[in-house]
Specification:
Length: about 325
């Protein structure tokens, strides 16, 4: 019997079915009978049978997701979801991968200005652009690395996106892992309170005392709350060395609000707002503003209170 490329493909398909392996590429004649523009092929395995249900339950995708670990400098925010991060205001682009490589995806994030988080996942995609004459073509598996500018809370909430249908072809996601840049959280000598996406907006206490002492801005070096504590201490050293000459009370920094300021979703700088009194989450009501067409927002906002003595502001 003459062995053609078609009989060879058929034999490979039988072997794949027998051993539970991913199916071989569809017979070219099947693609030919499903006319339409060919779409970019993926590098991931295609489950057998080639159905959305099999894709969502495919063991190899689960294994890859659970075996992955956060790369240096990043924290894991979710593992093995069946949905990716979404949100056009925070999206920075994507890259097609040849492997489910966390390190490659992290490298793309490092190379992209404003990238704070990345999402890697398997996507069931059609081989042919679905159309009236080819409503449910065979699938290919894309391995996608998407890049985002997000706060941790928004990243978790955003991972809820069903890709939907293209004619009779169901696009689904599996093995979706999310990672976000890690941030130093420990700060000896200070008590930390998390404010999320809002900064303190309470310069005057119940006695009419003006507690705001200015701010320090850091444009580089990542996000580190410890340098806000250092800025607070350095301000005290300076003020103590240069006391008021008009008889007014020496003002010392006992509280600092650290946060990232963003413009149109892109981080601009870390700010350290300094205060003589400690404020709490109830006063964290500043969630940004519009400056013309630019939207200024707040992320990673935390309050740091000096643990030496009592410094709470009266409200």
């Amino acid at each position: 019997m003459m062995v053609t490329k078609y009989t060879a493909l058929f034999a490979l398909g039988l072997l794949a079915s027998a051993f539970g392996m991913p199916s071989s590429p569809p017979d070219p004649s099947y693609i030919k009978n499903c006319p339409g523009p060919m779409l970019p092929p993926g590098y991931g395995s295609v489950p057998n049978p080639d159905t959305p249900e099999a894709f969502l339950d495919y063991t190899e995708f689960k294994k890859a997701a659970f075996a992955a670990s956060a790369p240096p400098g990043y924290d894991s925010i979710f593992v093995n979801l069946k949905s990716p991060i979404k949100g056009p205001n925070y999206y920075l682009g994507y890259h097609a991968l040849k492997d489910y490589s966390i390190s490659d995806c992290a490298e793309y994030c490092e190379e992209t200005d404003g990238c704070e988080a990345f999402n890697i996942f398997f996507e069931r995609s059609p081989k042919v652009d679905p159309n009236p004459k080819c409503k449910n073509p065979p699938s290919t598996t894309l391995i996608t690395c998407s890049l985002w500018s997000l706060s941790p809370g928004k990243a978790r909430a955003a991972a809820s996106n069903d890709r939907g249908w293209r004619y009779e072809f169901h696009v689904v996601i599996a093995g979706s892992n999310g990672y976000i840049r890690g941030h130093k959280k420990d700060c000896p000598g200070y008590k930390i309170e998390y404010f999320g996406d809002s900064a303190i907006n309470a310069p005057v206490d119940c006695k009419g005392e003006y507690t705001y002492m200015g701010y320090k801005r850091f444009d580089a070096g990542g996000y580190d709350v410890a340098r806000c504590a250092k800025a607070c201490s350095e301000q005290n050293e300076y003020n103590s060395a240069h006391p008021p000459t008009d008889g007014s009370k020496l003002r010392l920094c006992h509280f600092t609000n650290s946060y990232i300021e963003k413009k149109n979703g892109i981080p601009q700088a870390q700010y350290c707002a300094l205060y003589s009194k400690a404020w709490h989450k109830k006063q964290a009501t500043n969630n940004g503003q519009w400056q013309g067409k630019d939207h200024i927002t707040i992320s990673y906002s935390v309050g740091l209170t000096n643990v030496t003595g009592k410094h709470d502001a009266c409200v």
